[in-house]
Design brief:
The complex is a heterodimer of chains A (136) and B (135). Chain A has one helix at 67-76, and strands spanning 9-12, 15-16, 21-27, 30-34, 45-50, 53-59, 80-86, 98-104, 120-126, 132-134. With 136 residues, chain A is mostly beta strands. Chain A has one domain: Elongation Factor Tu (Ef-tu), domain 3. In chain A, the strands form three sheets. In chain A, strands 2-1-7-8-10 form a five-stranded antiparallel sheet. A three-stranded antiparallel sheet of chain A has the order 3-6-9, with no helix packed on it. In chain A, strands 4-5 form a two-stranded antiparallel sheet. The longest helix of chain A is centred in the middle third of the chain and has 10 residues, at 67-76. Chain B has 135 residues and is an alpha+beta fold. Chain B is 21% helix and 33% strand. Chain B has three helices and six strands. In chain B, strands 1, 2, 3, 4, 5 and 6 form a six-stranded mixed sheet that branches. In chain B, strand 5 and strand 6 (124-134) form a beta hairpin. In chain B, 30% of the residues are buried. Classes of the chains: A mainly beta (136), B alpha+beta (135). At the A-B interface, strand 3 of A face loops of B.
Chain lengths: 136, 135
């Protein structure tokens, strides 16, 4: 059933930052390994190494207990963040799976935007390994 | 979440720095110029997950009396200035969190000089200012 995305939950290292999140994307992809041999009528594909990531667009906020304090500290320390995303509310189930990944922070862009727009913090968080999908 | 009535009142208090102006947080049936009143504009709900950000807009309408044609326009010019002692934009943005009621506010534009007819009294000159608020 279709639903409007407005109650997604985003947790970074256990801290719920959902009310700062303007958009969220859970992206699971695998490399396209071609195995086409001579005489094939069409391209042959195999799923290669996974390359999953989370992408967020968040409203910028600075100060204690904000998105910045959370992410910047981990970025400076070259650490890994636990990222958990639910599509709607924080109760996991078959209708609301939980997406979990552990992400090194390779880039951090604390402020972006044009004059007159809301200051935004885009976050692209590649996953170390793969995203796990859980229903409980 | 802050009450809209509190935000209206706070916007009105911000305008008190402009001398000689009657201020109302609500629309008046028969305002006496120079005056400013506050009304509601469009609202954009759910700008972040879990109801984290809503964006109401407010319209501040200021009127000046047309007792002298050029004098009214000169006074309105000063209200419309981006800054200065009579700048409505500067006054509204003097405390962009309204004492912590909102996350931020921005006076994004004004309609400029417009004549307004009144039910009682003669026509007045005025302008609308749009105030975007981040709740």
């Amino acid at each position: 059933m279709a639903f409007v995305l407005r109650n997604a939950i985003v947790q970074l290292d256990g801290t719920d930052i959902s009310t700062s999140i303007e958009s969220v994307s859970v992206e699971m992809s695998a490399a396209d390994v071609r195995t086409t041999a001579m005489g094939a009528g069409g391209e042959q594909h195999l799923a290669g190494i996974r390359d999953d990531k989370f992408t967020f667009n968040a409203y910028s906020a600075f100060g204690a207990n904000t998105l910045h304090s959370l992410v910047n500290a981990k970025f400076v320390a070259a650490g890994t963040m636990e990222v958990i995303v639910f599509a709607s509310g924080s109760t996991a189930g078959t209708l609301n799976p939980k997406f979990i990944g552990y992400c090194p922070l390779l880039t951090y862009n604390p402020v972006s935007g044009a004059v007159g727009e809301a200051a935004m913090t885009p976050l692209e968080m590649p996953v170390n390994g793969t995203i796990t999908v859980a229903t409980s | 979440m802050s009450e809209i009535s509190d935000i209206r009142e706070a916007l009105g208090r911000s305008l008190l720095v402009i001398p000689g102006m009657q201020i109302s947080a609500y629309q008046l049936a028969n305002a006496t110029p120079p005056c400013a009143q506050i009304s509601r504009g469009p609202v954009e709900y759910d700008q972040a997950m879990q109801g984290g950000v809503h964006r109401p807009t407010f319209t501040v309408t200021a009127y000046v009396a047309l007792v002298s044609d050029q004098g009214a326009q000169r006074l309105l010019d000063r209200y419309l200035a981006a800054d200065g002692d009579l700048s409505i934009k500067q006054a509204l943005e003097s405390d962009r969190t309204l004492g912590g009621l909102v996350q931020d506010l921005h006076v994004t534009g004004a309609t400029g000089e417009q004549p307004y007819a009144r039910d009682q009294g003669g026509p007045v000159l005025g302008s609308d200012w749009t105030v975007e608020v981040w709740l």
